[in-house]
Design goal:
Elements (H helix, E strand, L loop, with lengths): L1 H16 L21 E3 L2 E4 L4 E3 L1 E3 L11 E5 L5 E3 L5 E4 L3 E9 L6 E8 L2
Parallel strand pairs: 2-9
Antiparallel strand pairs: 1-4, 3-7, 5-8, 6-7, 8-9
Amino acid sequence: MKLFGVIVAVAAIGALACGRKVVTTVEDPLACWNDLTVTVTPSSATLNVGDTLRLVGAVPGCTGASAPAWHWYSGAADIASVDSVSGLITARQDGQVLIYGTLLADPSVGGASAITIGQ
């Protein structure tokens, strides 16, 4: 963050030296996340072996902010695997598993979906 601020400041000083008006708006993408809550949809699902399902993470209340990047992982990859970027689950064998999604910008913030396969 400090390097980004320095780059913005140097660009602004350079533009002022050339006699140009500078208007800079630098928004912190996490600014609306002070009281952050996230949702993972669906919160639960039942699949058959071989089925796929894409989970979606959302940050309600962050209107106007760009959608945050998520990291997905399975609590039991032998039961269901998940693509770490897209959130696409593949049901591998009967059982129950939690699939977790965390924000890439703040891995301490996340949610989960309870997946049942073949039962």
